[in-house]
Amino acid sequence: MAKHLVLLSLAVVFTFSCLAFAYEPSPLQDFCVADTTSSARVNGLACKDHMKVQADDFFFSGLHIAGNTSNAVGSSIKPVNVAQIPGLNTLGVSMVRLDFAPWGINPPHTHPRASEIITVVEGSLEVGFVTSNPENRLITKVLKKGDVFVFPVGLVHFQRNVGYGNAMALAVLSSQNPGAITIANAVVGSNPSIGSDILAKAFQVDKKIVEQIQSKF
Ligand SMILES: *[C@@H]1O[C@H](CO)[C@@H](O)[C@H](O)[C@H]1NC(C)=O
């Protein structure tokens, strides 16, 4: 009986320590500006000498400039994460500017390490995310200028400009390095390709249809 209790407590402790490690750890100092020249391999980036830290380590300029949306999906993403601002290292936050041509989309994708909160600055966007298995429920809404919406961490989501002019949105993400997995690119555009017979079964279509889609990536 006592042995079972010990095992149970170990299981509980293990579960909760996993939960704790599922998010970026809280900083243990004021800041840890990324030293991009360091060869140290740590979770995140090694800290630059505090005495050498400058205002520019926490600074980025250019988010007022619209991105180029002349591409196949009609959108542009300008990230401002630890790659642009070394001072974001260990802080668990970053942002992004999204531009959309009329009817442009930000295709279905997920951020493996971040929840996202988005606000529409100009135009209107149809947004949505899909819950995990087995429901796969689509939760969707049309946002106007000034509206705010949340995409929970890891869930597949998208945006589409449903206005007649350009649209612009700003989003904040709960990671210094949220990562992005675009579903179409990852599944049918991987390098090397996932076997078309595997995808044919996954999508329940003929191999030829899969190969036709794969040829677009
Ligand atoms: C936008 O991108 C397209 C396609 O790459 C390119 O032809 C065009 O010159 C770019 N426009 C600007 C203003 O940079």
UniProtKB/TrEMBL annotation:
Q: Which Pfam families match?
A: Cupin_1
Provide the binding site for oxalate.
N106, H111, E116
Recorded GO cellular component terms are: apoplast
Residues that bind Mn(2+): H109, H111, E116, H157
Q: Which Gene3D superfamilies match?
A: Jelly Rolls
Disulfide bond positions: C32-C47
Specify whether Glycoprotein is a keyword of the entry: yes
Q: Where is the Cupin type-1 domain?
A: 61-211
Keywords, A to Z?
Apoplast, Disulfide bond, Glycoprotein, Manganese, Metal-binding, Secreted, Signal
Compartment(s) = Secreted, Extracellular space, Apoplast
Q: Name one GO molecular function term.
A: manganese ion binding
Q: What PANTHER family does the record point to?
A: GERMIN-LIKE PROTEIN SUBFAMILY 3 MEMBER 3
| Known role | May play a role in plant defense. Probably has no oxalate oxidase activity even if the active site is conserved.
Return the protein name: Germin-like protein
Q: Does the keyword Transcription apply?
A: no
Where does the signal sequence lie?
1-22
The Swiss-Prot or TrEMBL record describes its family as follows:
Belongs to the germin family.
SUPFAM superfamilies per UniProt: RmlC-like cupins
Domain of life according to the entry: Eukaryota
